[in-house]
Specification:
single chain; 3 domains; 21 strands; about 25% strand
Length: about 475
């Protein structure tokens, strides 16, 4: 039996995906989103003449679920994907190294690039190749590997501080949103295995050439409308109640009622909670089958973005990483931003605990000189605007032992299912992880039968 009606609470990528999947299978779907837009943590806003993305969200060729979602949304032409991995790595003084792949199969596809990489000596290159080979063999589903710090594992594999800063940290920090010392070995290994070590093309980088809001909100709403999904913005679930046949449902079946913040109620056979962990934890009762305190154990990790508008072009690449600098990754965001003249660049700072409480003035004083060291043209350029966006709880913390606290989709509340990049997808908190969780949640809803039978007593879930 497939559910006739589904309510999805949360309009991020997980919620959009789950709603589309359920509607495609014939369910009547209502999506509730508390904000006035869709897209969750990957969104845009307007500031003066600029259309600003809250963060610099990229994807890889291996992000197959997200790329398929783009096709469903009719947004494939609004992104670009490298033909071949090609990342400039800047250092102070205008020095540039490159991480590029060749046509050789993985892991040999990076060999030539690493041999020429200017930030490593011969000994570090040999140790790096050996560690990469060992990393390929890590069982990412083994709890023992999840309990180990990636930084500790690297030190036991004779990785120097220089190798950590110029290669390992360069990749782990933006993907896991933690430093190597804070990240789980299993999670870091998953990133390298899937993105670099198994398929040569997997790590090719893609990004949006228009504001994220145009894709996830604009195209997202249009796709949901085409699928017949009812979207209610500025509305979220305040209570989810179990009702039985005597309360008006079909005979022999249990059903759910969602009371929304806009004063309306929706009857449903199933509810998908596509919310951040803390909100989902508040919504679920203690007897939902998930260990109490799970959201606190997952924790949060921040991301800060620094937005700089120059009077001229200072960055010659679509994006670049850096070494020997507080700057981590810098992106050219001029295209699609609405900027008339000059260049708009954004600096993305992952695992930004140290910078989280710094003032905009303090960040400006530190990072504008750092940008000028990396981008010589910036030294003489006029800064027309500088502002900061902060995502205090951008992701969960995929640290040692975190996976044991990542719940699966099913709860013990009949008909109530979880979705979100923080659920146990095996992926870090990325757009790909969010979309994959939406697919899993929809499959769970579309296959559940026994869980939709009568309950002995009505239960109420309060937000």
């Amino acid at each position: 039996m497939k559910p006739g009606t589904v309510v999805v609470i949360g309009g991020g990528l997980a919620g959009i995906t789950a709603a589309l999947d359920c509607a495609r299978e014939g369910a009547e779907v209502t999506l509730l989103e508390a904000r006035g837009r869709l897209g969750g943590a990957a969104y845009s806003f307007t500031r003066g003449e600029l259309i600003v993305d809250n963060g610099q969200h990229v994807f890889l060729r291996c992000c197959t679920a997200y790329r398929e979602l783009l096709e469903q949304l009719g947004a494939s032409e609004l992104v670009v994907l490298q033909e071949r991995l090609d990342v400039p790595v800047l250092a102070p003084g205008g020095r540039v190294g490159w991480l590029r792949r060749s046509q050789l199969p993985a892991p040999l596809h990076l060999a030539a690039s690493l041999l020429r990489y200017p930030y490593l000596g011969t000994r570090d290159r040999i140790a790096l190749a050996w560690a990469m080979q060992r990393l390929r063999a890590i069982d990412v589903d083994d709890p023992a590997n999840d309990a180990v710090s990636f930084g500790d594992w690297l030190r036991r594999r004779r990785q120097s501080r220089r190798a950590v800063e110029s290669i390992w940290e360069l990749i782990v920090r933006p993907t896991v949103n933690l430093t190597v010392d804070s990240a789980s070995l299993a999670q870091a290994a998953q990133v390298f295995q899937v993105g670099l070590l198994q398929d040569a093309a997997a790590g090719d980088i893609g990004w949006a050439v228009v504001p994220l809001g145009q894709i996830h909100d604009g195209c997202g709403r249009e796709a949901l409308e085409r699928a017949g999904v009812t979207v209610r913005l500025r509305s979220t679930g305040q209570a989810v109640s179990r009702v039985t046949a005597s309360g008006g449902t079909s005979a022999g079946q249990a059903s759910l009622r969602v009371d929304a913040s806009d004063g309306l109620s929706v009857a449903a056979d199933a509810v998908i909670l596509a919310l951040p962990p803390a909100q989902a934890a508040q919504l679920l009762p203690a007897r939902d089958g998930i260990e109490p305190g799970w959201s606190e154990h997952l924790g949060t990790s921040p991301i800060i973005n620094l937005h700089v508008v120059y009077d001229r072009r200072v960055l010659e690449h679509p994006f670049a990483a850096s070494v020997d600098s507080p700057v981590q990754w810098v992106f050219d965001r001029t295209a699609g931003s609405g900027l008339a003249g000059g260049q708009y660049v954004a600096v993305s700072l992952s695992a930004a605990d140290a910078e989280l409480h710094a003032t905009a003035e303090e960040l400006q004083a530190r990072y504008l000189p750092a940008l000028a060291e990396l981008l010589p043209a910036a030294a003489d350029a006029e800064v027309r605007e500088f502002f900061v966006t902060r995502e205090h709880a951008a992701t969960f913390r995929a640290g040692p032992g975190a996976r044991s606290w990542r719940p699966g989709p099913r709860t013990e509340v009949p008909g109530v299912v979880l979705a979100g990049a923080w659920t146990d997808t095996g992926w870090p908190a990325t757009m790909e992880g969010a979309v994959r969780s939406g697919h899993v949640a929809a499959r769970e809803v579309l296959t559940m039968t026994a869980s939709l039978t009568d309950a002995a007593e009505p239960a109420t879930i309060q937000v």
